[in-house]
């Protein structure tokens, strides 16, 4: 299978690997698993008082496409509002990384993880869960 250069770059030099303290009120944590393969992705955001995502980190126990998808999405969400970040579609990730069809679910994991992180942040901060929905 031929992987794109962007995918290999994010896989070999993943951005924003790490974690924040999940108990901080400014941090939202999303932990999701892929039923298709059992891989697990943890994605965290740190949100400013103005509702801007200032920083993002991930830890992914999974395949190269899952690692690349999470690396890419942490880059994309920085500087975005939580509403903008919640609107990112897995198809955009799959397109950017040129994921082959069998690896599409890896990008879905990243979309699910950012949505879960936003919903965790909203819950913690007493915001309506609807804000995180599509
Ligand atoms: Fe899970 Fe890719 S199948 S590592
Ligand atoms: Fe399952 Fe990539 S997340 S193969």
From TrEMBL:
It comes from the Bacteria. Transmembrane segments: none annotated. One of its GO terms (molecular function) is iron ion binding. GO terms for cellular component: cytoplasm. Pfam families: NifU_N. One of its GO terms (biological process) is iron-sulfur cluster assembly. Gene3D superfamilies: 3.90.1010.10. Residues 2-127 form the NIF system FeS cluster assembly NifU N-terminal domain. NCBIfam families: iscU. Belongs to the NifU family. A scaffold on which IscS assembles Fe-S clusters. It is likely that Fe-S cluster coordination is flexible as the role of this complex is to build and then hand off Fe-S clusters. This is Iron-sulfur cluster assembly scaffold protein IscU.
């Amino acid at each position: 299978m031929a992987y794109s250069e962007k995918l290999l770059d994010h896989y070999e030099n993943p951005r924003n690997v790490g974690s924040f303290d999940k108990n901080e009120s400014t941090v939202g944590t999303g932990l999701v698993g892929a039923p298709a393969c059992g891989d697990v992705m943890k994605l965290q955001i740190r949100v400013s008082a103005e509702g801007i995502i200032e920083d993002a980190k991930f830890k992914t126990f999974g395949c190269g496409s899952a690692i690349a998808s999470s690396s890419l999405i942490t880059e994309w969400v920085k500087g975005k509002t939580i509403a903008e970040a919640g609107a990112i579609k897995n198809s955009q990730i799959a397109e950017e990384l040129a994921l082959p069809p069998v690896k599409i679910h890896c990008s879905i994991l990243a979309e699910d993880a950012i949505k879960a992180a936003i919903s965790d942040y909203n819950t913690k901060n007493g915001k309506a869960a609807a804000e995180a929905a599509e």
